[in-house]
Amino acid sequence: MASFRLTLEYDGAGFAGWQLQPRERTVQGTLQEALGRLVRGEVAVVGAGRTDAGVHALGQVASIHLETGLDASTLLRALNAKLPPDLAVVAACEVPEDFHARFHARGKHYCYRVWNGAARSPLRSQWQHHVPQPLEVAAMVSAAAPLEGRHDFASFQGAGSSVRSTLRTLHRLSVAGQAGDEIRFEMAGDGFLRHMVRNLVGTLLEVGLGRRAPESLQAVLGARDRRQAGPTAPARGLTLVRVEYAPPAPVSPAIPGP
């Protein structure tokens, strides 16, 4: 039995999220089906996290155990030959048997992209959220600064979550760009609550539109009440950029894709 860590890139527009669901096309289900055809048997895939329907990934991570003689490089090429165009393995490496993509993850990095042009952009519509009204970037930068650090982010947690604690650490929350062009929200932390990134972005966009004062976000954070925060930003603007692990999880270097 060999154990592998896979780094995945996918366009989330055609998937009903990561998690396996009956009668739905999901990233986990598509990957398991391709692996099953490759090794002629059932394969369980564990992901580092559950991206929602429509959310993209540049660096989602999955762990698998296979009865195979394939090395990581050969597995990467063989698996990509069976995957659809909107899902690919971009790196693979062999790992210790106890490696777990979810439990061993130390942090994640997300990017949310907004197109702030007055006219909609068909080439950006699948990967960026369109806000046609000019946004005040400096106000959003000011509002974001106090949210960095360790806080109770209950006000930014989506409904339906059953986590034991809503304490999380945001190592980075940056807003960059200019009105009338692309604006990027970068977030890196030790973990994220359900819809936390999209709820933070939705609330910051209200600041950028002049509907909230920048200093009001500290009160929203302290309220621990989802009703005090802004709307959930659409999924299409969100990309999981990277999952962080403490070295030395891999036992061999990652093999880049072709």
What would you note in describing this structure?
It is a single chain. The protein folds into 2 domains: 2-103, Pseudouridine synthase I, catalytic domain, N-terminal subdomain (Alpha-Beta Plaits); 107-241, Pseudouridine synthase I, catalytic domain, C-terminal subdomain (Alpha-Beta Plaits, 2-Layer Sandwich), CATH 3.30.70.660. The protein has 5 helices and 11 strands, in the order E-H-E-E-H-E-E-E-H-E-E-E-H-H-E-E. The protein is 20% helix and 29% strand. Mean pLDDT is 93; it is low at 249-255. It is an alpha+beta fold. It has helices spanning 27-39, 72-80, 137-144, 196-208, 216-223, and strands at residues 2-10, 46-47, 56-66, 87-94, 105-115, 129-130, 149-152, 167-177, 182-189, 238-245, 255-256. Helix 3 (137-144) crosses helix 4 (196-208). Strands 1, 2, 3, 4, 5, 6, 7, 8, 9, 10 and 11 form an 11-stranded mixed β-sheet that branches.
What is the element layout, followed by pairings?
Layout: E1 2-10, H1 27-39, E2 46-47, E3 56-66, H2 72-80, E4 87-94, E5 105-115, E6 129-130, H3 137-144, E7 149-152, E8 167-177, E9 182-189, H4 196-208, H5 216-223, E10 238-245, E11 255-256
Parallel strand pairs: 3-10, 5-6
Antiparallel strand pairs: 1-3, 1-4, 2-3, 4-11, 5-9, 5-10, 7-8, 8-9
Helix pairs in contact: 3-4
Total helical elements: 5
Number of strands: 11
**Beta-strand level of the residues, as a percent range?**
25-35%
Order of helices and strands: EHEEHEEEHEEEHHEE
**Shape from CA axes?**
globular
Rg: 19 Å
Which sheet architecture does the biggest sheet show?
11 strands, mixed
* Uncertain runs: 249-255
| Residue-averaged pLDDT | 93
What's the CATH H-level superfamily name of the largest domain?
Pseudouridine synthase I, catalytic domain, C-terminal subdomain
CATH architecture of the largest domain: 2-Layer Sandwich
